[in-house]
Amino acid sequence: MPRLLYNGPGFQYVIYWRRKGSTYWNENIEQHPKASMWEVSVNETYALYEIKRSYISGIQEKEPTVVPKDFRLDPTKPIGAHRAHFIWEAVDTSEEKIKGEFKGYKVNVLWQKGSSQMEGEDHDRPDVRAAIDGLPANTALRAQVSVMNTHYTGPSSQIIDFLTPEGGMTV
């Protein structure tokens, strides 16, 4: 099974087997997700057997369903020519909302450069504030924040538009 499908806590394979024609299924639980084989001793080696495999998982990781609220520029810090500070409200980090293990937030900042769209980002931070460096001076930018679990990024917050002031070159 691909790694992406067994990333939730409590993942286990369930293996069922029975002699062909029997009504009763035997069951074994294999707790290692990377198991590629399993052996069982049977009375009749050359008889036909039916085998089924299933799995149990506490929760499989999916795209988070929560969206950070009140995403905005941090009013306590000025916007620099090459840096902006953001704050937002924390989200409910329960597994039901995050659809897996909470890893942090991802802040994306977008801008146009000629006919290309450029992007700066900061991620894997559990804090509800971020400073993004390396932004272009005197440029209109757009920013948004999302929640991340181990494998997915959730829906983005509302977009905020802002302008960086004029400034010197970054080294």
Q: If you had to describe this structure to a student in words, what would you say it looks like?
A:
There is one protein chain. With 171 residues, this protein is mainly β. The chain has 2 domains: 3-56; 72-163, Sandwich (Immunoglobulin-like). Helices cover 2% and strands 40% of the residues. The chain has 1 helix and 10 strands. The chain has one helix spanning 95-98; strands spanning 12-19, 26-30, 49-56, 72-73, 83-87, 102-113, 116-125, 129-133, 140-149, 160-163. It has a 4-stranded antiparallel sheet, with no helix packed on it. The radius of gyration is 25 Å and the shape is rod-shaped. The relative contact order is 0.20. The model has no long low-confidence stretch (mean pLDDT 84). Residues 67-167 form the Fibronectin type-III domain. This is Fibronectin type-III domain-containing protein. InterPro entries: FN3_dom (IPR003961), FN3_sf (IPR036116), Ig-like_fold (IPR013783).
What name is given to the CATH topology of the largest domain? Immunoglobulin-like
Query: What is the oligomeric state here?
Result: single chain
CATH class of the largest domain: Mainly Beta
Given helix and strand content, the structural type is mainly beta
Looking at CATH, the homologous superfamily of the largest domain is Immunoglobulins
State the domain count: 2
Estimate the mean pLDDT confidence. Answer: 84
Q: Unreliable stretches, pLDDT < 50, 5 or more residues?
A: none
Gap between N and C termini:
47 Å
Q: How do the SSEs run, as a string of H and E?
A: EEEEEHEEEEE
Tally of contiguous helical segments = 1
- In helices, the fraction of residues equals under 10%
Strand ordering within the main sheet: 7-6-9-10
Radius of gyration: 25 Å
What is the count of β-strands?
A: 10
The general outline is: rod-shaped
